[in-house]
Amino acid sequence: MKTLLILTFILFSVNTALATETVVLLHGLARSSSSMKKLQTALDDAGYHTLNIDYPSRKHRVEILAATVKKQIEARTKHATKIHFVTHSMGGILVRQIQKKAPLKNIGRVVMLSPPNQGSEVIDRIGSNVAVQKVNGPAGNQLGTQPDGFIAKLGPVDFELGVITGDRSINWINSWMIPGKDDGKVSTESAKVKGMSDYKVIHVTHPMIMKKKAVIKDTLHFLKNGKFILEDS
Q1: Which has more pLDDT, 231 or 213?
Q2: What is the rounded CA–CA span in Å between residue 56 and residue 61?
Q3: Cβ 178 vs Cβ 116: under 8 Å
Q4: What domains can be seen in the chain, in order of their start residue?
Q5: Cross-strand pairs, 112
Q6: What is the pLDDT of residues 17-71, one digit of tens each?
Q7: What are the DSSP E strand ranges found in the chain?
Q8: Mean pLDDT for the stretch of residues 156-167
Q9: Which residues contact 166 (CB under 8 A, 6 or more apart)?
Q10: Residue 99's closest CA among 66, 57, 53?
Q11: Which residues have C-beta within 8 Å of that of residue 63, sequence separation ≥ 6?
Q12: How far apart are CA 146 and CA 160, in angstroms?
């Protein structure tokens, strides 16, 4: 009985501590918060307070989207001791823009899933196409790999970051434009960024990476430990 009470107290203490840490989820370009729902549920079950934000990814440039998202975060995390992030694709670029322009002082750990951290060669090739611009909106055209482009000017990250990306594609047209291994949108190399703490490639596609069990498990592990699960563990 005494052992059970001790274990209950420890579990309560851990969950209470995690509840003061908010995990902000940011979806990718042309997606919505519903795409991050499975991850959100896993984070909720782990004891975190979660904030799964919808933002109009196709309507504005990255600078405006990042400022809009930051206002939502500040308004809804006033009592958070730490603000962690789990992002998909362009959601990671918003975090980099926030931390470059007007950084959150209590930022914790960040997990980016398939982020175009060095841009996307697909945008280089077809970003100027009218149909592509209509689908992607103003922010999509900022995601090229040009050395003087928007992405390149974001520079290294100065927060604790883990990057997970995929090497499986179901979009052979996009993959034809991307050098090396890719997930149909971003090459495994382009997902990297200077200053990141850990990096992992999993056999999954760009659209589905946030739903894969192994990715969710690794995300939770990084938020807790600052590193991904070792392959042989």
Answers
A1: 213
A2: 10
A3: no
A4: 21-225 (3.40.50.1820)
A5: 87, 163
A6: 455 899 999 999 999 999 999 999 999 999 999 999 999 999 999 999 999 999 9
A7: 21-26, 49-53, 82-88, 107-113, 160-166, 198-202
A8: 98
A9: 114, 183, 184, 188, 201, 202, 203, 204, 205, 206, 209
A10: 66
A11: 97, 101
A12: 26
Amino acid, single-letter form, for residue 129: N
Q: Determine which of 17-31, 60-74, 107-121, 153-167 has the lowest per-residue pLDDT on average.
A: 17-31
Q: Please determine, for residue 155, whether its predicted confidence score (pLDDT) is greater than 70.
A: yes
Lowest mean pLDDT among 12-16, 87-91, 149-153, 215-219: 12-16
Q: Please check whether residue 142 is in contact with residue 58, taking contact to mean a CB–CB distance below 8 angstroms.
A: no
118: enclosing H helix or E strand: none
Instruction: Tell me what pLDDT residue 10 has.
Output: 43
| DSSP track, 55-111 | --TTTS-HHHHHHHHHHHHHHH-TT-SEEEEEEETHHHHHHHHHHHHS--TTEEEEE
Nearest to 215 by CA among 169, 170, 165: 165
| Angstrom distance (rounded) from CA 219 to CA 225 | 10
The Cα 103–Cα 226 span in angstroms is 20
pTM for this entry: 0.90
- Are the C-beta atoms of residues 164 and 220 closer than 8 Å to each other? no
C-alpha angle with apex 39: 38 to 42, nearest 5 degrees? 90
Half-sphere exposure of 28 (CA within 13 A, CB side): 18
The stretch 150-166 carries a mean pLDDT of 97
The DSSP call for residue 33 is: G
- What are the tokens at 133? 């611009």
